[in-house]
Amino acid sequence: MEGQGLKGIRQIQTHPNYLQSNSTSHKWPFSAVAELIDNAYDPDARASNLDINYESFCSGPCLTFTDDGNGLDAEGMHKMFCLGYSHKKDIDVPKHLAVGQYGNGFKSGSMRLGRQDAIVFSIKNNTKTIGFMSQTFLENTEAATVVVPIVSWNLANQIIPSADAEPSLRAILEHSIFTTTKELFEQFEKISEQMTLHKRTRMNSERVKGTRIIIYNLKKDASNRLEFDFMKEVNDIIIAEEYDLTHPAVSMDEPDDESDIPKHTYSLRAYCSILYMKPKLHIYLRGKKVQTLFVEKSLSKTERDTYKPKNVQLVPDKPIKITFGFNPKKNQYGMLMYYKNRLIKPYEKVGYQLKPDQRGVGVLGVVECNFIEPTHNKQDFLSSKVYSCLIKALGEKLNDYWNEKMGNPVGEIVGLVSPNPEEDIHPDDNWVQCDRCDKWRKLPPNANLEVVEQEDVEWFCEMNPDSHHSRCDIAEEPEDVDDARSSYKKTFKKRQQAAQVADYQRKKDEDARKRQERAKINEEKKRLQQEKVQLVVVEQQVATQEQQAKQAKEMEKLRQQLALQEKQLREQELQIQQGIPGPSTQADPEQELQIQQGIPGPSTQADPEQELQIQQGIPGSSTQADPEQELQIQQGIPGPSTQADPTYSDGEDDDDAQPTAPGPIPNKITKVNSRAKRQMPQPVTPRVTPAKQPRITPSACNRPSMPTSSPPTPLVNPQSPSQPPQEQAEQNEGPSVNELTVKLEDCWEKIEDLQSQLDKETSDVNNLKGKLNSLQTSMSVSTKVFEEKKICGKLNLRRSRYMQKRSRKPRSLRKI
User: Fold this and answer.
1) Chunked mean pLDDT (size 10), the chain, 816 residues
2) Residue 775 in contact with residue 534, Cβ under 8 Å?
């Protein structure tokens, strides 16, 4: 058609290669099939039945699409082949919106499936029309632009005259798979057979109408293998594994319920079952009816939510309805996003379903997004801010549904509860479509589902047990009141907030408990420190007590020595009282006889040289006296064995004298005051004096030394007659008995005092040792408890820090 005012202006031509370029928009072959199904479903065609079949002609396998729609005449056929032309927006049918809008679906879809070869047969208004679009024809004729032969006949099979009728018929017979007019008319007969087969002729006066599309020269690979596998399933069309680019390793033998790959990706029957949100078109695939699925009515635990996009004018101005539920096929979950009842994005994962856990698994959502434009191949939506907001909102609403049905508000990960994989999921209600009026009916709970589940058996309204909806002239039940769960109340957030408040309070109490424990630990530290200081003090006291005990032991040893000296002193005193000479003064009878006779003994035999020295008054080497010792003997001072302790004085108060330094107790009994010796009469030891004493040599004076406890006995020197007898008596006198008794009593009193002091100090040492042991035991136990509490405190601190990183404090609780 030429517009007014365009005469004389050259028109832009469409090169035949554009058909190939235009078909590449369909990467997935089923999207091209969906374009042809949409043409039969749209309100301009309004087909009720569509047959998709595999047939073989002389040129090889072909795909055929036969519907019972309104059909096309020559003018409508010409518009359909025009690129970019579409009048579907102008068609206004209530509750039936047209999917096609770009005027490109048939061209891109048919050219994608075959090698750009398609022939269309259609019956409308008592006319039969054929259109032929083929790149093979254009290549053979070397056409510079796209040329589509179109020819029409009446019901009497007479060609309708037109300028291009004869050339078009000749081109179709020469370059298509049909070479005779009879073969062309046979394809028209198959359209009427289609209506009779599916019992769509309600009245005898109703005329035959419909469309049949044949696509041949199907796409093959370099090895001459078809893109579709027609032999794998008799009643299905499967994408060959070599062409399945999305899931190349999919196994066709694996059951659909056990596979993680949705079956619609490789099975045309499975794809057609969910192609429309509310199916109205009956699709027969290779002679068997496709069990279309009313997805909204086939879910379990169904709930409805709403969404109203921002800055978008909706027609009508009502929020968008979103349906959520659990799919009986657990491996197929996500969002089914439709546009004007046509599936655009199947099983889109949102919200929890994008996480690597089990949250959101099995939840299926259904939404109709008529406010967003789809792409040309109708497999995605145009990327925009509105679409991004929609995806975000769908994720949030799916999370809310999961939390309400399966979520746990108390866990660390919100909603981390997965459904039982062994639990069978059944739809809330059973819906079935009438094969005559295409209306959906809700079956009662006690209805027999065996007939409904059989795909080969047709179902009609009169088979409905519900008498209120058992005729085709009765309207469908309204969708908004079809169940009692239309009011979707969300309580999870309130429960979650309450759980968060409880968790916050629990953490607060735990922090307070930890602070109390830390305070107790600090107090325990202080107590242990004090005990440690006390322990150091006690150790010092114990060391002091041990030193005192050591000194007491030394004093005990000295006491024993003193007792021994006392015993010796008493024996000596007894000898003195009895007049018994000591061992040093007792005379040997034989030696005394020798002395009287003047016969020198063996020990007193004089040496001539020594005797000469004695006569001359020269002292010899053996009799040479120590001057100091000789002076002590003349003055009556006792020798080394009876020498008094220099720590005691010679005065009268000898009993009160105290030692200046610890050490051995001095022999106070041996200290005799020279004044007391002269005052007290001392018994004289009788000596045997011969009438005539011979000269005694110095060697005769070498007697055995006297014991340390006995006083020295002065010897009678015969060579000193001038010495008075009183002085000799003073030399022989010893301490008096009374003085010794007084001294002895004083010593015993001091010994008893020392013994009592020693016992007291010993008991104090034992008490301190017991206290030291108890303190050490308590300190070891307290140290162990402190270390355990310290370790537990560190572990709890690390855990609390880790939990603070994993979970933030809710914004709603920050004000709290």
Assistant:
1) 60 82 87 92 87 84 91 90 80 77 84 86 92 90 90 90 90 91 91 72 58 90 84 89 52 53 88 89 88 86 89 78 89 91 92 89 92 89 90 92 78 56 72 82 80 72 86 78 54 80 90 92 91 90 89 88 86 81 51 54 48 50 47 49 40 40 40 41 43 40 40 42 45 63 82 84 83 80 81 83 69 48
2) yes
Placement of tokens 């050219």 in the chain: 111
CB 244 within 8 A of CB 265: yes
Task: Give the residue among 41, 27, 25, 23 at the shortest CA–CA distance from 272.
Answer: 41
In sequence order, the 6+-apart residues with CB closer than 8 A to the CB of 657 are: 647, 648, 649, 668
Determine the 3-state secondary structure of 654 from DSSP.
coil
Which value, to the nearest 10 degrees, does the dihedral of the CA atoms of residues 270, 275, 277, 283 take?
Answer: -80
**Which phi and psi angles does 612 have, rounded to 5°?**
-60, -40
Asked whether 671 and 747 are in contact (CB, 8 A), the reply is no
The SS3 assignment for 93 reads coil
Distance between CA atoms of 299 and 323, rounded to whole angstroms?
9
> What phi and psi, each to the nearest 5 degrees, are found at residue 345?
-125, 110
CB 739 within 8 A of CB 530: no
459, 451 Cβ separation under 8 angstroms: yes
pTM here? 0.60
The pLDDT value recorded for residue 757 is 82
Distance from C-alpha of 687 to C-alpha of 179, rounded to nearest angstrom: 185
Phi, psi of 417 (to 5 degrees): -140, 120
Length reported for the chain: 816
Distances in Å between the Cα of 468 and the Cα atoms of 278, 465, 566, 794 are 22, 9, 139, 72
Nearest CA-CA partner of 116 in 52, 53, 176: 176
